[in-house]
Amino acid sequence: MIDFDTTKYIKITDDAKTKTSELIAQMKAKFPVWSYWDDKELDNLFPSPKEPTTRHFHREVESRDKGKSRNSMEGKPLITLREYALAQMQYYDETGKFLDKDGFTLLQDLLPVGWVAGGGYDPDGRGVLFDRDDAGDERGSYGFREAISLPSSLPSLPSDLEERVRMLEEWKSRVEKVIEI
How far is CA 30 from the centre of its chain? Predict the structure, then answer.
Protein backbone atom coordinates (compact mmCIF):
# COMPACT_ATOMS: atom_id res chain seq x y z
CA MET A 1 0.00 0.00 0.00
CA ILE A 2 1.27 3.47 -0.84
CA ASP A 3 1.72 5.81 2.10
CA PHE A 4 0.79 9.27 0.82
CA ASP A 5 2.86 12.10 2.31
CA THR A 6 0.26 14.54 3.64
CA THR A 7 2.63 17.48 3.18
CA LYS A 8 2.61 16.86 -0.60
CA TYR A 9 -0.82 15.34 -1.15
CA ILE A 10 -4.35 16.11 -0.05
CA LYS A 11 -6.95 13.37 0.40
CA ILE A 12 -10.44 14.39 -0.69
CA THR A 13 -13.58 12.45 0.17
CA ASP A 14 -16.87 13.47 -1.45
CA ASP A 15 -19.83 12.09 0.52
CA ALA A 16 -22.11 12.14 -2.58
CA LYS A 17 -24.90 13.57 -0.39
CA THR A 18 -24.14 17.28 -0.16
CA LYS A 19 -25.34 19.49 -3.01
CA THR A 20 -22.66 21.55 -4.72
CA SER A 21 -24.41 24.78 -3.68
CA GLU A 22 -24.24 23.57 -0.06
CA LEU A 23 -20.47 22.95 -0.39
CA ILE A 24 -20.03 26.52 -1.64
CA ALA A 25 -22.19 27.79 1.25
CA GLN A 26 -19.93 25.91 3.70
CA MET A 27 -16.95 27.65 2.11
CA LYS A 28 -18.65 31.07 2.38
CA ALA A 29 -19.12 30.48 6.12
CA LYS A 30 -15.30 30.25 6.44
CA PHE A 31 -13.95 32.77 3.91
CA PRO A 32 -14.93 34.93 0.90
CA VAL A 33 -16.02 33.01 -2.20
CA TRP A 34 -17.12 34.21 -5.62
CA SER A 35 -18.81 31.97 -8.17
CA TYR A 36 -19.76 32.65 -11.77
CA TRP A 37 -22.70 30.26 -11.24
CA ASP A 38 -25.71 30.67 -8.96
CA ASP A 39 -26.85 27.86 -6.64
CA LYS A 40 -29.22 26.26 -9.15
CA GLU A 41 -26.55 26.25 -11.87
CA LEU A 42 -23.95 24.83 -9.45
CA ASP A 43 -26.24 21.91 -8.60
CA ASN A 44 -27.19 21.26 -12.25
CA LEU A 45 -23.75 21.64 -13.84
CA PHE A 46 -21.74 20.01 -11.03
CA PRO A 47 -23.97 17.30 -9.52
CA SER A 48 -23.01 15.03 -6.63
CA PRO A 49 -21.37 11.75 -7.64
CA LYS A 50 -23.58 8.67 -7.53
CA GLU A 51 -21.53 7.16 -4.71
CA PRO A 52 -18.96 8.47 -2.22
CA THR A 53 -15.47 8.90 -3.68
CA THR A 54 -12.01 9.33 -2.18
CA ARG A 55 -9.04 10.47 -4.26
CA HIS A 56 -5.61 12.00 -3.61
CA PHE A 57 -4.22 15.10 -5.35
CA HIS A 58 -1.02 17.13 -5.18
CA ARG A 59 -1.33 20.11 -2.84
CA GLU A 60 0.57 22.22 -5.38
CA VAL A 61 0.11 22.08 -9.13
CA GLU A 62 3.14 20.23 -10.49
CA SER A 63 5.33 22.22 -12.91
CA ARG A 64 4.76 19.58 -15.61
CA ASP A 65 1.00 20.28 -15.34
CA LYS A 66 1.23 24.07 -15.84
CA GLY A 67 0.64 26.03 -19.01
CA LYS A 68 -1.50 23.43 -20.77
CA SER A 69 -5.05 23.71 -22.07
CA ARG A 70 -7.84 21.64 -20.57
CA ASN A 71 -8.30 20.04 -23.98
CA SER A 72 -4.75 18.66 -23.76
CA MET A 73 -5.67 16.75 -20.59
CA GLU A 74 -8.66 14.92 -22.07
CA GLY A 75 -9.17 11.48 -20.51
CA LYS A 76 -7.07 12.21 -17.40
CA PRO A 77 -8.70 11.90 -13.96
CA LEU A 78 -8.59 15.59 -12.94
CA ILE A 79 -9.95 17.23 -9.81
CA THR A 80 -13.61 18.24 -10.11
CA LEU A 81 -15.19 21.49 -8.95
CA ARG A 82 -16.69 19.68 -5.96
CA GLU A 83 -13.33 18.13 -5.01
CA TYR A 84 -11.64 21.50 -5.47
CA ALA A 85 -14.15 23.10 -3.06
CA LEU A 86 -13.49 20.34 -0.52
CA ALA A 87 -9.72 20.70 -1.01
CA GLN A 88 -9.86 24.47 -0.45
CA MET A 89 -11.81 24.02 2.79
CA GLN A 90 -9.52 21.26 4.04
CA TYR A 91 -6.35 23.18 3.15
CA TYR A 92 -7.70 26.33 4.79
CA ASP A 93 -8.65 24.43 7.97
CA GLU A 94 -5.15 22.91 8.15
CA THR A 95 -3.06 25.97 7.21
CA GLY A 96 -5.18 29.13 7.28
CA LYS A 97 -4.07 29.63 3.64
CA PHE A 98 -5.51 29.00 0.18
CA LEU A 99 -4.57 26.80 -2.76
CA ASP A 100 -3.54 28.44 -6.04
CA LYS A 101 -2.56 31.88 -4.77
CA ASP A 102 -0.51 32.35 -7.96
CA GLY A 103 -2.55 30.46 -10.49
CA PHE A 104 -5.81 28.97 -11.65
CA THR A 105 -6.67 25.26 -11.66
CA LEU A 106 -8.63 24.08 -14.67
CA LEU A 107 -11.03 21.37 -13.54
CA GLN A 108 -12.39 18.09 -14.89
CA ASP A 109 -15.74 19.73 -15.56
CA LEU A 110 -16.25 20.62 -19.23
CA LEU A 111 -19.11 23.00 -19.96
CA PRO A 112 -21.19 23.80 -23.05
CA VAL A 113 -19.68 25.75 -25.97
CA GLY A 114 -16.05 24.77 -25.31
CA TRP A 115 -15.76 26.17 -21.78
CA VAL A 116 -14.12 24.57 -18.75
CA ALA A 117 -14.67 25.26 -15.04
CA GLY A 118 -11.75 26.51 -12.98
CA GLY A 119 -10.88 27.53 -9.46
CA GLY A 120 -8.33 29.77 -7.83
CA TYR A 121 -7.70 32.44 -5.23
CA ASP A 122 -8.05 36.18 -5.80
CA PRO A 123 -6.13 38.07 -3.11
CA ASP A 124 -7.68 41.37 -4.28
CA GLY A 125 -11.03 40.80 -2.63
CA ARG A 126 -13.11 38.03 -4.16
CA GLY A 127 -11.32 35.28 -2.22
CA VAL A 128 -11.68 31.76 -3.61
CA LEU A 129 -13.27 31.96 -7.01
CA PHE A 130 -15.01 29.60 -9.38
CA ASP A 131 -15.13 30.74 -12.98
CA ARG A 132 -14.96 29.41 -16.52
CA ASP A 133 -12.56 29.83 -19.41
CA ASP A 134 -11.98 28.53 -22.91
CA ALA A 135 -10.96 24.85 -22.74
CA GLY A 136 -8.38 25.48 -25.47
CA ASP A 137 -6.53 28.34 -23.72
CA GLU A 138 -2.94 27.71 -22.67
CA ARG A 139 -1.62 30.14 -20.07
CA GLY A 140 1.39 29.82 -17.81
CA SER A 141 -0.72 30.46 -14.71
CA TYR A 142 -3.14 27.63 -15.56
CA GLY A 143 -2.59 24.17 -14.12
CA PHE A 144 -4.15 20.81 -13.28
CA ARG A 145 -4.40 18.42 -10.37
CA GLU A 146 -4.56 14.83 -11.56
CA ALA A 147 -5.93 12.13 -9.25
CA ILE A 148 -3.16 9.82 -8.11
CA SER A 149 -5.07 7.32 -6.02
CA LEU A 150 -6.97 4.14 -6.77
CA PRO A 151 -10.10 4.99 -8.75
CA SER A 152 -13.40 4.34 -6.97
CA SER A 153 -14.80 3.01 -10.25
CA LEU A 154 -12.76 -0.18 -9.94
CA PRO A 155 -15.10 -3.10 -10.72
CA SER A 156 -15.67 -5.34 -7.70
CA LEU A 157 -17.36 -8.37 -9.20
CA PRO A 158 -15.23 -11.53 -9.64
CA SER A 159 -16.53 -11.79 -13.22
CA ASP A 160 -14.74 -8.49 -13.94
CA LEU A 161 -11.33 -9.85 -12.95
CA GLU A 162 -9.62 -9.02 -16.25
CA GLU A 163 -10.93 -5.43 -16.14
CA ARG A 164 -9.86 -5.10 -12.48
CA VAL A 165 -6.33 -6.31 -13.30
CA ARG A 166 -6.09 -3.92 -16.27
CA MET A 167 -7.24 -0.95 -14.16
CA LEU A 168 -4.85 -1.84 -11.32
CA GLU A 169 -1.93 -2.11 -13.73
CA GLU A 170 -2.84 1.27 -15.24
CA TRP A 171 -3.14 2.81 -11.76
CA LYS A 172 0.20 1.31 -10.67
CA SER A 173 1.89 2.76 -13.77
CA ARG A 174 0.50 6.27 -13.02
CA VAL A 175 1.60 6.11 -9.39
CA GLU A 176 5.08 4.89 -10.34
CA LYS A 177 5.43 7.86 -12.75
CA VAL A 178 4.41 10.28 -9.97
CA ILE A 179 6.87 8.69 -7.53
CA GLU A 180 9.73 8.97 -10.08
CA ILE A 181 9.26 12.73 -10.40
Answer: 20
